[in-house]
Amino acid sequence: MRGFKRSWQFHLMILPSLLFLIVFAYLPMAGIVMAFQDFKLLGGGIFGSPWIGLENFRTMFEREDSLQVIWNTFFIAALKIIFNLLAPFTFAILLNEVRKAFLSRTIQTLVYLPHFLSWVILGGILLNILSTDGGLVNRALGAIGIDPIFFLGEGNWFRFTVIASEVWKEFGYGTIVFLAALANINPSLYEAAEVDGASRWKQTLHITIPSLIPMAVVVGTLSLGNILNAGFDQIFNLYNPLVYEKGDIIDTFVYRTAIMEGKFGFATAVGLFKSIVSMALIVISYRIAYKVANYRVF
Amino acid sequence: MYHKTVPYRIFNLFNTAFLLLLGLLCVLPLIHVLAVSFSAKSAADANLVNLWPVDFTTVAYEKTINNPVFLSSLWVAVKRTVIGTVLTLGLACLAAYPMSKESTVFKGRNVYAWVFVFTMIFSGGLVPFYVVIQKLGLMNNFWVLILPAAVNVWLTILLLNFFRGVPKELEEAALIDGAGHFRTLISIYLPVSLPALATLGLFSMVFHWNSWFDGLLYLHNKADYPLATFLQTVIVQKDMSSMSINPKEMELLSQKTVNAAQIFLGALPVLVIYPFLQKFFVKGLVLGSVKE
Question: Can you give the residue ranges of the ABC transmembrane type-1 domain (chain B) (predicted)?
Answer without folding.
Answer: 70-274
